């Protein structure tokens, strides 16, 4: 393919992908499957890699992420992002309305109401219709440049539709995690033995500031926009600006309404108090704005907030109900989760019977007694939680809850590691929920993807003594499966076919599926890229494990301990004998030059513009070699921030040249 042909094909693919993105996120329709959409995206990525000069600034491939940001640049807002004053009652709303009427000297006015979403405020700057910068609210005067991460959010246009728009304008919006995605993230964290996130808002905030934009893309953030700013907007009302944003391809929540007076505003608030609970994201109130923009300017601002707008905050619904018991769940990693068993009560649109109590510390903080009446809220209107004890209803003779000391499933004495909030059952191979959970984790879609098996099938296989670890799956025969309830010849054959097909899974899926505590899918991928095969991982010291991207002390120690356990070694050996991949199938980087030919490098520390594995790829592409330790044969030690002093001392002693990130870049220029 010539460059001219490639340019034409890139434009066609870009238009197709943008069309389907708009159809999905703005019109909530689909014309092609996710698989077909991914094929279009991969085709575009391949062309851009082959012809990098043709990559467009607003290419849809930027939504996939992959860039690493070590530091976020501070940007001063052209228009300060002020906070809103809050109201909590009808009286306070009427007081706000009186101030508006007084400020406008009796002139007629109307309001515009929007639901207030509990997310992260963002400022989006567009020039010539292209997104050039995204900045967090920060302190209202200045915020952080998070453009690379925000480009991964598919509901934010990289290039807006149409042609009648200002040369430069700013859009304000709220970035959020949907309730569904938040629950999925928590399920994944629970699966690898991590503490669950407390609420969707803080999780979205942390995601926007992550260093790896590829991980941001996986989190599936979303965004509603609600305000348009600029010198050449030419709108007379806020409502008119909202309609412009919609026509340009921005996602605006359809829950807004123009209200003729404060009475209509109060009706809007009352109307949405219950209805908002059915929305796919968290809401915590209503924003009320004077609709006409000239009147907004006339009313002006206080030092902290606009006089023409306020927010009404809904009170968190809290109910009192009886705590009948506390049960204790055992997770795949042995983590114990206490659960409050409640007298059923209707709360925020659903009947609540159970609520998480998190850990022993939380039970002690609450001072719980079985038989207490407790106040229950929905955390972020998603997860029920016990917030306090209704002491006015406490009866005499109740004793404080004593946290269990032994596993409720197998009776093993629980352990609690220093610095950890949760208790764990250490009986990994003899505790039924852990055994089943480990196999269920192994067969899931992100791991070995054996969809012909399921939770009930695994439970039966375990109860029959046929499957006590993932490796046992590969020893199953048809006659074993025919012992299961309702399993006939064809079903058994499908199960065996799924198990056999899983042998083709990539090594990173195998490593994730093995189920090492704290090792999620992303971490498994980074480790595989760094170490290449199972033996390198198994033989690595904690210090060597810490050199891999995304691996901190907790993960490194967990991996190290796993591979020192004789039972784990046996499991790996059996999986290897079954034919599972134990090394990366990724090809070595394609050679680009010989500029580093014959030169050897050790990479250490944290870098401004690269991850260590990215530097490694660059060195290999340009003919260099990577060594694992400093020796007299080493040519260069590439030193980043926080490099261990022992490496530097050894390099200086042996006369090895120590170079910075900038000096390395100069070396590449020849």
TrEMBL record:
Its EC number is 6.5.1.2. Belongs to the NAD-dependent DNA ligase family. LigA subfamily. DNA ligase that catalyzes the formation of phosphodiester linkages between 5'-phosphoryl and 3'-hydroxyl groups in double-stranded DNA using NAD as a coenzyme and as the energy source for the reaction. It is essential for DNA replication and repair of damaged DNA. The gene is ligA. Residues 591-670 form the BRCT domain. It comes from Chryseotalea sanaruensis. SUPFAM superfamilies: BRCT domain, DNA ligase/mRNA capping enzyme, catalytic domain, Nucleic acid-binding proteins, RuvA domain 2-like. It comes from the Bacteria. Its cofactor is Mg(2+); Mn(2+). The keyword Aminoacyl-tRNA synthetase does not apply. This is DNA ligase. PROSITE patterns: BRCT, DNA_LIGASE_N1, DNA_LIGASE_N2. Keywords: DNA damage, DNA repair, DNA replication, Ligase, Magnesium, Manganese, Metal-binding, NAD, Zinc.
